[in-house]
């Protein structure tokens, strides 16, 4: 057997020391993550199998009864369908719009940093603040514009129209949500080798062929991140709806997140709300896993 030299032993000890130091730096984060996420989630899972109302010290174990109630509840199914439609629209639009903006900004040479900063401004504003600002615009500015343009659908606030309320909320979400995907796509575009684009141009590839066969494979990791984060945002949307419509009008914008809040805070059905949260957690995880599975074989180098 080959004997390990003193130099190799010294390097191994040095590497082991570095690993211990790096682990020590991550330990606070691991502890906080364990306490405030893993432990609380496990406690929530336990309470989802009880009839606890969130206040009383007395509760009984009911098994899967809460999950059966949730899955057979028409109100939950309608809220989930709202979330699914909202999420599909959000994901598609927050890929198409930011990617288009990123492609345009990537071509701009002068003042590119200024334009990128302008597009990122909405991302630093809280969702509640954005919701309140747009709430005022929809109730005060939009009706005036609708009357000036003689558009009957906009003569009143769209937030009071069951057919337009969800679209209005989606528009606000897209307005604020474009910033981060745009920055991510710009970073992804920087990783595309110019030599490949030039070679494709010499071979006679058009703009669409270069985009689909050269650029997109390098953007797959970014696309994965955008799809997963925006799918999560759509499935768990709460702030905009709570501030702008509170689920109305006529429950047309009642999302699962708002339903969970109402069951826990307003209706005293804490165990039901936790069961709904667990189901939503599984759905978000399944969407993320599916996205990674469908795109993993299309990445560059796979």
Give the topology, please.
Elements: H1 6-47, H2 65-71, H3 74-107, H4 112-120, H5 127-148, H6 165-177, H7 179-190, H8 194-202, H9 207-235, H10 239-244, H11 256-266, H12 270-295
Helix pairs in contact: 2-12, 3-6, 3-7, 3-9, 5-6, 7-9, 8-9, 9-12, 11-12
Describe the structure.
The chain contains 12 helices and no strands. Helix 3 crosses helix 7. The chain has 302 residues and is mainly alpha-helical. It is flat, with a radius of gyration of 25 Å. The chain is 73% helix and 0% strand.
Keywords:
single chain; 302 residues; mainly alpha; 12 helices; 73% helix
The sequence of SSEs as H and E is HHHHHHHHHHHH
The number of helices is: 12
How helix-rich are the residues, as a percent range?
A: over 70%
What is the molecular shape?
flat
Q: Given the helix and strand composition, which structural class is it?
A: mainly alpha
In short:
This protein has 302 residues and is mainly α. The chain is 73% helix and 0% strand. The protein contains 12 helices and no strands.
